[in-house]
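Before relying on records like the one below, remember that each one covers exactly one chain. Contacts with other chains, cofactors or solvent are not represented anywhere in the record.
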Amino acid sequence: MTKRFDVVGIGNAMVDVLARCEDDFLGEAGVEKGIMQLIDMDRAVDLYGRVGPAREVSGGSAANTIAVVASLGGQTAYVGKVKDDQLGAIFAHDLRAQGAVYGTVFADKDAADETGRCIVLVTPDGERSMNTYLGVTEFLTPDDIDPVQMADAAMIYLEGYRFDGPESHAAFAKAIEATEGAGGTVSLTLSDPFCVERHRDAFRAMIRDHVDLLFANRDEICSMYQTDDFEVALSAAASEVGIVACTEGAKGAHILAGGQRWHAPAKPVDIQDATGAGDAFAGAFLWGHSQGHPLELCGRMGCAAASEVISHIGARPEANLAEIFRADGLV
């Protein structure tokens, strides 16, 4: 049966505040380098006041991934909560402008929380330290999940970060039931090793019972399977999931499926900002997979997309990925 959507994403709906800083600033501001830290509204206001010139762009991990799929011509939709405020309007406009369907009902203007934002501090080495105020995106509920839309998805893409929320697990369960019941498949990104630590049991149950395609990086997959041995972690994941796509920074990506394994080399680039590399990888991989391309080629597309994103500030591509794929002989 033909589905309306190649991929429907579910996750955080955020606006990224991007600013460059020196390593010393991180220590002075109490920011741990290279990870995502959850902060409250007061901390968000304080940190925003400390940073220098910044740029505000729509973000959210899975939203970035869906934006990539849409930019390549894939049929996509997204589910994520924002408030009826200025940042919420920015988020919705930017995602729809990419070609994705976005119809999640806004939280009311009188809601106590605001649209979420992530203050991304980028050091000279390109590493990003993310300070995330979730705001209303934390309160995604099963009521935000349209089972008809989920049933019309060939695949849904679930964001690990969204496991941090009082009703998010129930929302994911509703989406999975509707998708699988209509013959669709499920993909999941682990998002962050600390996120894995917080929700390992829930992740493991979902991976074993429902996930057909798992995205992770080296640190995340090792955290998931509680080992320092990367090969052991990859093997464990491959024994539970049909397709594993695991990135390893400058070493590229490893794709495992059906007892086979492929390596997609990273595309060398001058790193300006590592924000969104994994999101772009997943988006290009999902697009390639939805078009029936071989998994090895999907991995190479993912690495090419990640390379484009880390070549500039901001988590979404600025160049035409389809043209890059053609120039690299990938399509």
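Residues 193-209 form the longest helix (17 residues).
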